[in-house]
C-alpha cells in the first residue's frame, strides 16, 4: 500500500485532486484495505480538499477516517501515529471552518496522545494549531504568556531535530507575538535571530516576515528614521521576490512614513490599497490601515468615509485594539446615530489622537 499512498500524494501535489479522489474511491470500493488503511485513504481524500481550501468538504472525510480508526482494536504505535496525523488535519479543518467548540474538544483529546506517542514533527504541528487558535481567540491582540511558551517550544523542538526552517518560523512567531503584545524591543530581538539563521533563497518569505516585524516594531515606537531605514530593506526584498502579502505590509509602513511627514495624499492612496488587499484576502489586521484612514478623513472633514472605517475597527473578526480607543469610537458612533455630528467628530478625533499616542497610528 506504500506505493498507493505515494501515488495519491503525488496526484495531490500535482493539483490532480479529482483524479486522486477517484483513485481513492476505487481502492476503498475494492474491499481490500484494512480498517487502518481505509482510514488513511479517507484522510487523504480530506487532504485533497484542504489543498483546494475546501475545508467544509474535508471535515466529514476526516471524521469518517477517525471513525474507522476507532473501530480498530489493535491500537499499536502505528495506530497512534495515524491517529495523531489524521486528528491534526481534522483540527486544522475544524478551526478553518470556525467549528470552535468541536475543535476545542478534539484538541484536548489529542493532547495526551501527542505527549505520549507523538514524534517531534507531530508535536510541532500540534503546537502550531494551538498557537493559531490563540491568535484567533485573542483577536491577534495582547496574547497570553502561553502563546510565548508555545512559540519557544516550537523553536526548541525544531532545534533538537536540526530543522532550521521550523526554528526560523518559531523565532519569527516569537517576534510576531511580542509585536502583537506591544513589546517592540523583544519583537526585534527574535526577528533578528530569525534573520541570522536565514542563509538561502528558499526562506524568502521568512525573511520578509522578519523585516516586516522589525519595521513595525520601530513604528510602534514612532521611530521614523529607523522605520525608513528598515522599510528600504523590506521594500528592496519585496521588489526582488514579488510577494503580494509582503508588498501589502511594505506599503502599510510606507503609508505611515508619508503620514508622519504630512504627505497625506500618498498616505491615503497607499492605505486604501492595503485596505483593499486585506479585505479581499480576509486579513484581520485592518487597524493598521483603517486607523490611519480615519485620521486622514477627519482632516478632510469626510465623516461618511470615516464611519466606514470606524465600523471596521469594531468588527469581531478584526484585530483587537485597546479599550481606550474602542470606547471613544463607540461613543462617537452613538453620537453619530443621534445626528450629533460635531460630538461624533470630537470623539473620533480623540480616538485618533489616542491611537497615535499608544502607537496604533
What do you see in this structure?
- The chain has a domain at 277-361.
- The termini are far apart.
- The chain has 18 helices and no strands.
- 80% of the residues lie in helices and 0% in strands.
- The chain is mostly helical.
- Helix 11 packs antiparallel against helix 12 (224-241) and helix 15 (287-299) packs across helix 18.
Biggest beta-sheet profile: none
Shape: elongated
> Given the helix and strand composition, which structural class is it?
mainly alpha
Helix proportion range: over 70%
SSE string, helices as H and strands as E: HHHHHHHHHHHHHHHHHH
Contiguous uncertain segments of 5+ residues = none
Strand content range:
under 5%
Strand segment tally: 0
Radius of gyration: 24 Å
Spatial separation of the terminal alpha carbons:
57 Å
**What is the count of DSSP helices, taking H or I runs of 4+ residues?**
18
**What is the average per-residue confidence, as pLDDT, rounded to a whole number?**
94
Amino acid at each position: 500500500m506504500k506505493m498507493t499512498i505515494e501515488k495519491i500524494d503525488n496526484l495531490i501535489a500535482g493539483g490532480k485532486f479529482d483524479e486522486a479522489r477517484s483513485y481513492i474511491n476505487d481502492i476503498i470500493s475494492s474491499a481490500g484495505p484494512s480498517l487502518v488503511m481505509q482510514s488513511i485513504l479517507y484522510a487523504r481524500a480530506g487532504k485533497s480538499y484542504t489543498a483546494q481550501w475546501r475545508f467544509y468538504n474535508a471535515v466529514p472525510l476526516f471524521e469518517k477516517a477517525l471513525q474507522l480508526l476507532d473501530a480498530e482494536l489493535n491500537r499499536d504505535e502505528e495506530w497512534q501515529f495515524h491517529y495523531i496525523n489524521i486528528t491534526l488535519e481534522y483540527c486544522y479543518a475544524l478551526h478553518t471552518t470556525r467549528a470552535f467548540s468541536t475543535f476545542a474538544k478534539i484538541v484536548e483529546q489529542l493532547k495526551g496522545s501527542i505527549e505520549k506517542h507523538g514524534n517531534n514533527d507531530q508535536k510541532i504541528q500540534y503546537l502550531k494549531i494551538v498557537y493559531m487558535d490563540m491568535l484567533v481567540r485573542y483577536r491577534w491582540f495582547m496574547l497570553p504568556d502561553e502563546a510565548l511558551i508555545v512559540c519557544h517550544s516550537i523553536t526548541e523542538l525544531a532545534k533538537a531535530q536540526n530543522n532550521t526552517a521550523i526554528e526560523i518560523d518559531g523565532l519569527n512567531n516569537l517576534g510576531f507575538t511580542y509585536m502583537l503584545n506591544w513589546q517592540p524591543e523583544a519583537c526585534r530581538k527574535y526577528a533578528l535571530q530569525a534573520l541570522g539563521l536565514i542563509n538561502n533563497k528558499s526562506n524568502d518569505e521568512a525573511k520578509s516576515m522578519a523585516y516586516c516585524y522589525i519595521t513595525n516594531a520601530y513604528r510602534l515606537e514612532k521611530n521614523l528614521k529607523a522605520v525608513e531605514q528598515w522599510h528600504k530593506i523590506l521594500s528592496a526584498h519585496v521588489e526582488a521576490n514579488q510577494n503580494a502579502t509582503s508588498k501589502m505590509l511594505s506599503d502599510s509602513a510606507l503609508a505611515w512614513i508619508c503620514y508622519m511627514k504630512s504627505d497625506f495624499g500618498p498616505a491615503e492612496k497607499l492605505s486604501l490599497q492595503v485596505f483593499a488587499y486585506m479585505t479581499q484576502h480576509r486579513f484581520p489586521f485592518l487597524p493598521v490601515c483603517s486607523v490611519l484612514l480615519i485620521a486622514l478623513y477627519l482632516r478632510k472633514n469626510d465623516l461618511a468615509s470615516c464611519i466606514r472605517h470606524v465600523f471596521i475597527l469594531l468588527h469581531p473578526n478584526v484585530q483587537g485594539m485597546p479599550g481606550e480607543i474602542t470606547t471613544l469610537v463607540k461613543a462617537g458612533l452613538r453620537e453619530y446615530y443621534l445626528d450629533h455630528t460635531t460630538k461624533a467628530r470630537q470623539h473620533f478625533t480623540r480616538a485618533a489622537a489616542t491611537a497615535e499616542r499608544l502607537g496604533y497610528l
